[in-house]
Design a protein that fits this description.
- This protein is mainly beta.
- The chain has one domain: Glycosyl hydrolase domain, family 43 (Tachylectin-2, Chain A, 5 Propeller), CATH 2.115.10.20.
- The chain is built from no helices and 22 strands.
- Strand 9 and strand 10 form a beta hairpin.
- The relative contact order is 0.14.
Length: 336
């Protein structure tokens, strides 16, 4: 008789759910959009707090068991912000909730900050993130752009007062969001894959390049990847993470079947722009078991290589509540 393994429900192509999911749960509120980066001998997880409209950071040593509160042991019974701004620099000692980047509402385009992507390049840390503009008449966000902040220690950030990428192509409508950035040492070039077309659920994926992280050129006025009209991708694709490999580029992305059903998929391309080939086992991850915290939708994948395995961090949703979980794939071969 085959053993029942709840960690493999909705997982394919060798993936499984981490047994201690969610790694950031309901204690801290509604969270999403995790991005993990090795910093020294620890791992930093940068993520969105949806109610506070800020970017937070959690820390751990094994890339899985994150501590979402400050290192000095402050708990959720005694919380207050310890983050502040002087000029364009955000200072934080971690904060009770691990504040990393707080919004600047006076700039209009930063009524909320979210969807961080952090990397180390050219001797410093870079955070690319989405800033949203709030419209009082509609009582909703009406525009999304991408900002850029830099820092020497992955904690305190100096952010530009203007966006570095804005929606100016017809297909992008009123939003560019979900930045994924790598720095290509050989080409001395920052490369960004971003989503666009809708503030909350983007329609497709675009691509831009920059010599410095601030001045970007869109390679095409059209998306470099869009839905293939299959049932899986019937409505849209977006919220991706691209990894450069020896063979080319590997993309983990979100496929939306409809307004509520999202799954995690994979594709590859030789140049990171054209001819994306989907994984034959797509989706690699679907919703969890009945009643689970991620039963309705899984999306915004970000991956990390560690100890001959892949770890994929993702946002899961159930009953409208969003949490952050992890997936594990033993071995480097992904079957694509």
């Amino acid at each position: 008789m085959r053993a029942y393994d709840p960690g493999k429900i909705g997982c394919y192509a060798g993936w499984r759910r981490y047994e201690n999911n969610p790694v950031i749960g309901e204690r801290i509120g509604e969270v999403s959009d995790a991005m993990v980066l090795p910093v020294g001998d620890k791992y930093h997880m940068y993520y969105t707090h949806r109610f506070l409209k800020k970017i937070l950071v959690a820390v751990c040593e094994n890339a899985l068991d994150f501590r979402p509160f400050a290192e000095d042991g402050v708990t959720d019974e005694n919380t207050e912000s310890k983050a502040y701004v002087i000029g364009n620099t955000f200072y934080s000692d971690g904060g009770d909730y691990g504040y990393s980047l707080i919004r600047r509402p006076e700039l209009k385009w930063e009524a909320a900050v979210c969807q961080p992507f952090v990397l180390f390049a050219k001797g410093k840390y870079h955070m690319f993130y989405t800033g949203k503009r709030y419209d009082a008449v509609s009582d909703d966000y009406d525009r999304a752009v991408i900002g850029h902040a830099t820092g020497n220690n992955a904690i305190n950030w100096m952010a530009s007062r203007t966006p570095v990428l804005e929606p100016d192509c017809l297909w992008e409508h009123n939003a560019v969001c979900y930045p994924c950035v790598i720095y290509d040492e050989k080409e001395s070039l920052f490369k960004m894959w971003y989503s666009a077309g809708d503030i909350e659920k983007p329609l497709a994926i675009g691509y831009a390049v920059s010599p410095d992280g601030d001045n970007w050129t869109k390679v095409s006025e059209n998306p470099i990847m869009k839905n293939d009209k299959s049932v899986l991708e019937k409505e849209r694709v977006g919220a991706c993470h691209v990894v450069k490999t020896e063979e080319g580029y590997l993309m983990f992305y979100t496929a939306w079947q409809d307004a509520f059903k999202a799954r995690i998929c994979m594709a590859k391309s030789e140049d990171g722009i054209h001819n994306w080939i989907r994984h034959s086992s797509n989706p690699i991850v679907s919703g969890g078991q009945f009643g689970a915290w991620d039963v309705e939708a899984v999306y915004r994948p970000v991956v990390l290589k560690k100890d001959n395995k892949w770890i994929c961090y993702y946002t899961g949703c159930a009953r409208g509540n969003k949490r952050i979980g992890a997936l594990i794939h033993q071995g480097m071969e992904l079957g694509l």
